[in-house]
Amino acid sequence: MSLKIRLARAGSKKRPYYHIVVADARSPRDGRFIEAVGAWNPVLPKDADRVTMNEERVRHWLSNGALPTDRVARFLDAAGIKPRDARSNPDKAKPGKKAQERAAEKKQREEEAAAKAAEAAAAAEAPAQEAAAE
Hints:
Strand content: 15-25%
Radius of gyration: 30 Å
């Protein structure tokens, strides 16, 4: 049986409250669980005590092979129980296909404008050189 340490939603509509539970991975989110090991109240301000956990029981379940979900892994990392692996997705910061096309078109227009400006400056300079030569 694969175990997960995950969140189970409680609370009313638009007032979320989550229990941190150890459950079988096949059971539904708010369904059957083995043990409740903490709680998370995202409604509280960030400087308040939003996350409460029974660290001893969390360590017990981690040693028995339970895997935390991403959100719970953040809580465990903040509590110093289990370090979270650093994630790297360099493609996420790249602009989309259309934005890249717009940037390429803009760069091309700027280059054309710079070339026209250089031609105009050279054309204006040429008569001045001829006048100086006479």
